[in-house]
């Protein structure tokens, strides 16, 4: 399948390949839909093995962003970008500024933010060349790190799942496994400990685990993140990279609920049905991890933390609606969430010649 074939099959509005020979920039920006507003989604900086793998990832991520923004009640469509390279060795001010110029050339159709491999300081650099950048530092007029509200939204979704499964919106006494305690996971641990949950964590980065233990010495640690999947827990929260749930891992799960911050947790759509078959309640990642996008969207209007937090707090009700719809319709929560998102895009959105970001 050629790149053109893959884009057409995925149904995206626009995909732009960016190359700057001087800085070594190789990037892809994908816009799945702008029916609800400018495509909003982060920039992922990752050493993909080849351009085809990067394209597949950005197409999938941008589609998920369309559904995430729709279900979060935001007036934004779905967009995403990937930069091909090692963020440790390849990232430079010149490369980020070249990337900013490419984003600016889209004229407001795409609004970018932080993602895996990019940080607040990087968005400050991109913003030197482009106005359609969020996730900037407070000193640069932005809202700063969005992982706090991302974790908050995941916790809200987890409370909705607890009420759905156990009849009470509480995690007190529940054993919760957090796989990945980096940007989002460590903040989620803070919230879980505060909720009275018994927390077990794992991360490939030992420094990340040590930081959690310094704040919460009572937290249990599993050395191998893969082993955490089969731990005897009530809730599993994947907060590292995606595709953790597949035909190999689902049969090993002991958790009754899966609710985490990682994007694209399902390796393929059929995994959602496999979870249902095992009696595991899955909270779609694009529903519960929308707190960060609530924050960066608010930044476009002059950031007010309380307003963004109030928007993120709606994630609990949305999660409850998704789980209730799935139970009533006899389908997976993923299928129910997709129907709700597509309904909002169809009913509220419109086909419009694009206007610049507001």
Automatic annotation (TrEMBL):
<comment type="similarity">
    <text>Belongs to the Glu/Leu/Phe/Val dehydrogenases family.</text>
</comment>
<dbReference type="InterPro" id="IPR006097">
    <property type="entry name" value="Glu/Leu/Phe/Val/Trp_DH_dimer"/>
</dbReference>
<dbReference type="InterPro" id="IPR046346">
    <property type="entry name" value="Aminoacid_DH-like_N_sf"/>
</dbReference>
<dbReference type="InterPro" id="IPR033524">
    <property type="entry name" value="Glu/Leu/Phe/Val_DH_AS"/>
</dbReference>
<dbReference type="Pfam" id="PF00208">
    <property type="entry name" value="ELFV_dehydrog"/>
</dbReference>
<feature type="domain" description="Glutamate/phenylalanine/leucine/valine/L-tryptophan dehydrogenase C-terminal">
    <location>
        <begin position="144"/>
        <end position="353"/>
    </location>
</feature>
<dbReference type="Pfam" id="PF02812">
    <property type="entry name" value="ELFV_dehydrog_N"/>
</dbReference>
<keyword id="KW-0560">Oxidoreductase</keyword>
<dbReference type="InterPro" id="IPR016211">
    <property type="entry name" value="Glu/Phe/Leu/Val/Trp_DH_bac/arc"/>
</dbReference>
<dbReference type="InterPro" id="IPR006096">
    <property type="entry name" value="Glu/Leu/Phe/Val/Trp_DH_C"/>
</dbReference>
<dbReference type="InterPro" id="IPR006095">
    <property type="entry name" value="Glu/Leu/Phe/Val/Trp_DH"/>
</dbReference>
<dbReference type="InterPro" id="IPR036291">
    <property type="entry name" value="NAD(P)-bd_dom_sf"/>
</dbReference>
<protein>
    <submittedName>
        <fullName>Glu/Leu/Phe/Val dehydrogenase dimerization domain-containing protein</fullName>
    </submittedName>
</protein>
<keyword id="KW-0520">NAD</keyword>
């Amino acid at each position: 399948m050629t790149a053109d074939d893959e884009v057409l099959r995925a149904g995206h509005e626009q995909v732009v390949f960016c190359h700057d020979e001087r800085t070594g920039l190789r990037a892809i920006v994908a816009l799945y839909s702008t029916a609800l507003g400018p495509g909003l989604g982060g920039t992922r900086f990752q050493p993909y093995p080849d351009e085809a793998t990067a394209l597949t990832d950005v197409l999938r991520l941008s589609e998920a962003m369309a559904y995430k923004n729709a279900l979060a009640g935001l007036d934004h469509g779905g967009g995403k970008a990937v930069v091909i390279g090692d963020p440790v060795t390849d990232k430079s001010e010149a490369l980020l500024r070249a990337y900013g110029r490419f984003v600016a050339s889209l004229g407001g159709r795409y609004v970018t933010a932080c993602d895996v491999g990019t940080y607040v300081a990087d968005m400050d650099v991109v913003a030197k060349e482009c106005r359609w950048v969020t996730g900037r530092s407070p000193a640069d007029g932005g809202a700063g790190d969005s992982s706090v509200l991302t974790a908050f939204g995941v916790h809200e979704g987890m409370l909705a799942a607890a009420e759905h499964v156990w009849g009470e919106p509480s995690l007190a006494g529940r054993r919760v496994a957090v796989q990945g305690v980096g940007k989002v996971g460590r903040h989620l641990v803070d919230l879980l400990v505060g909720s009275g949950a018994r927390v077990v964590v794992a991360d490939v980065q030992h420094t990340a685990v040590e930081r959690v233990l310094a704040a919460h010495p009572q937290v249990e640690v599993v050395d191998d993140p893969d082993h955490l999947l089969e731990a005897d827990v009530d809730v599993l929260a994947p907060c590292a990279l995606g595709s953790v749930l597949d035909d190999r891992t689902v049969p090993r799960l002991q958790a009754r609920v899966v609710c985490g911050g990682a994007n694209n947790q399902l390796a393929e759509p059929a995994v959602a049905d496999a979870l249902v078959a095992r009696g595991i309640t899955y909270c779609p990642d694009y529903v519960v991890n929308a707190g960060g996008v609530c924050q960066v969207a608010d930044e476009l209007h002059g950031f007010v933390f309380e307003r963004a937090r109030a928007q993120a707090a709606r994630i609990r009700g949305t999660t409850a609606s998704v789980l209730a719809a799935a139970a009533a319709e006899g389908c997976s929560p993923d299928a129910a969430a997709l129907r709700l998102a597509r309904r909002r895009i169809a009913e509220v959105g419109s086909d419009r010649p694009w206007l610049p970001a507001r």
